[in-house]
Amino acid sequence: MTALLKLSPVFVMAGLMLSGMDILLAAPIAFVCACCAAMITERCTFDELLNAALDNLKNFLLVFLILEAAYAVAECFMATGVAAAIINIALSLGLTAKFVAVAGFLVTSLLSVATGTSWGTFAACAPIFLWLNHIVGGSTMLTIGAIAGGSCFGDNIGLISDTTVVSCGMQNVRIVDRMRTQTAWAALCLMLSVAAFYTAGVLMKLPDTEGSAAAAIQQIPQSVWDVLAQKRPAAVTLLRQVQSGVPFYMVLPLLIVLVLAVRGTNTLICLGAGILSSGVMGLAAGTVAGTGEFLKLVRDGASAAGSWTIAMMLWVGAFGGVMRRMNAFDPIASAIVKMVGKVRQLLFCNALLCLAGNAALADEMAQIVTISPIIRDMTEKAVVGSEKDMYRLALRNATYAGAMGVLGSQLIPWHCYMGFFTGIAASVYPLAAGTVTVSSIISHNYFAMIAVGSILFFTWTGLDRYIPYFAVPEEPEVRLRRSAAVGAAG
User: Residue 162, CB half-sphere, CA atoms under 13 Å: how many?
Assistant: First the structure.
C-alpha cells in the first residue's frame, strides 16, 4: 500500500495528461500530490521536500541556458534564410514522382536538424512537397509519411531540439556526447529509410514527370497561406524565402554548428556560433534588415523557450526531486531487476518503459519528464560499474527517452503528433481532405518503423557493438546489483 501511495503522483500526472490537461498545469498538481504522499509515507516536512526539489533543480540550470539558446538558434535559422537555403539546394534539380518522397524525407531531416522542431519543419515543408507531389503525380500518403519521419529525425538527434535538451538534462549527460554516440545509428536508419521510400516509389510504378518547388508554391491557394499564417507563421516566412530564393551560402551556419558539435565543442558555444553566423550572413544576404531586427529574432526565440518549456521543467524538476526523496520508484526498479538477468536486458526494459509511457501519456515531452527519472534511478541503483561506464548507460537512457518519445510517437495512432500531422496535411493540401488518415501516415512512415525497431533489436541482441560509438558496456564491465532490495543499494 505504501508503494502505491508513493507512486500515486505519477498516476495523477498520467491521468491529467490523458484528460487533455497541459503539462504546465498537470506538473504542479502532481508536485503537490507528491508532497502529500511524502509527508504521509516518510513523515517529511514541507521545508525538507522543498529543499529536495531545489536540490534537483540545480541539475537543470545548464539545461535552461541551453534551451534559451536553442530556441534562439531555431528562430534565427527559420528567419534568416538558413532553412530556405537547405530546401532550395535540395530542390535545385527537377524531381520525379519516384523521388519526391525521398527528397522530402532528406530535406525535412536536414531542416529538422537545423531548426530543432519537428512540428515547424512539417508545417513548413508539407505545402511544398504535397503540391510538388501533386504536380508530378506521386503518392500523397508516401510523401506525407516521408516528411513526417524526416521532420522527427532532427527532433531526436538535433543539437537544438527541446526533446534532446530535456532528455539529456534528465539523465545529466552532455548533449554533444549523446549526439556523437547515436550519430552512426541515426545515419544507418537514414540510409535504410531512403532505400525504403525509393523502393516503395518504384513498386508503386510512379511516373517520371518532373516538377519544381517554385511551381508547387505557385499552386498553393490563398486559403492555405491563411492557415499557415495562423498555425505556423514562421512557415510562411520560410516559404516566401524559398519562393524568392536565398544565397546558397546561407547553409554555412548549420554546417558550423554541426562541425563544432562533432568536434565535441561545448553546446553553448555551438549554439552561440550558430546565432552569430546566421546574423552576419543574413545581413550580407539581405534576409535581415539590420542588427536591431536580428536581435529581436534572438529575443523572440529565447522568450519562446521561457514562455512554456522552462516553466514546465521547473515544476517537473521539483516533482522529480520529491519523488526521489521518498524513493518512489524503487518498487518498479526491484520488480524489473528481478525479471532480468543482464544489464542489456535492463536497458531493453528501459526502452520499452519509455515507449509504453509515450503511448499512455500521448505526449513525448510528458513521457520524457515522467519516465526519465524512473529509468535513471533504476539504472543507477541496479547496476554496478565505473563512472565512465555508468555515464555511457546514462547516454543510452537519454537516447531511449528521446527516440521513444519523438520517433515512437509516429507509431501511436492517438498521439498528439498524429493529430497535428493529419490536421496540417489536410489544411495545406485540401485535395487530400478526408483521405489523409492516421493509419495511412503510420503505414508509410518507414523511418519511424526502422528507427524504433532497430534500437530495440540492437539493444536486445547486442549487435549495437558493431555500430561506431553506439555500443553500451556489458558484463563484466558492468553488472547487476544482486540485492534483495534495489533501493537499499542507493
Answer: 23
Is 207 within 8 Å of 136 (Cβ atoms)? yes
Contacts of 4 (CB under 8 A, 6+ apart): none
Q: By CB neighbour count within 10 A (0-12 exposed, 13-18 middle, 19+ buried), where does 213 fall?
A: buried
Instruction: Identify whether the C-beta of residue 285 lies closer than 8 Å to the C-beta of residue 244.
Output: no
Rounded-to-integer distance, Cα 469 and Cα 243, Å: 40
The domain ranges of the chain are: 2-489
- What's the rounded Cα separation, in Å, for the pair 459 and 348? 6
Q: Where are the alpha helices (DSSP H) in 326-413?
A: 330-339, 343-361, 364-382, 387-406
| 374, three cell numbers | 524512473
Which DSSP string corresponds to 44-67? --HHHHHHHHHHHHGGGHHHHHHH
468 upstream amide cis, omega within 30 of 0: no
Comparing 61 with 39, the larger pLDDT belongs to 39
Which uninterrupted H or E stretch holds 136?
helix 118-136
Q: How far is CA 214 from the centre of its chain?
A: 30
| Distance separating alpha carbons of residues 119 and 415, to the nearest angstrom | 13
CA torsion sign, 176 to 179 to 182 to 187?
Answer: negative
Asked whether residue 277 carries a pLDDT value surpassing 80, the answer given is yes
Per-residue pLDDT tens digits for 153-184: 988 887 778 888 889 988 999 988 998 899 99
Q: Give the pLDDT of residue 447.
A: 96
Helix and strand numbers, DSSP H then E, in the chain:
25, 2
| CA nearest to 100, candidates 131, 62, 70, 129 | 129
Say how many Å lie between the first and final Cα of the chain, rounded.
22
Cell of 13: 500526472
For Cα atoms 435, 115, 250, give the angle at the middle one, nearest 5 degrees: 115
Query: Over the chain, what is the mean pLDDT?
Result: 85
Sorted by sequence, the CB contacts under 8 Å of residue 212 that are 6+ apart come out as: 91, 94, 95, 132
Look at the chain and count its residues: 490
CA proximity to 212, closest of 101, 284, 136, 274: 136
pLDDT of residue 307: 66
In 3D space, the residue among 200, 180, 67 whose CA is nearest the CA of residue 140 turns out to be 200
CB 171 within 8 A of CB 350: no
Confidence (pLDDT) at 485: 43
Please tell me whether residue 476 adopts helix, strand or coil conformation: coil
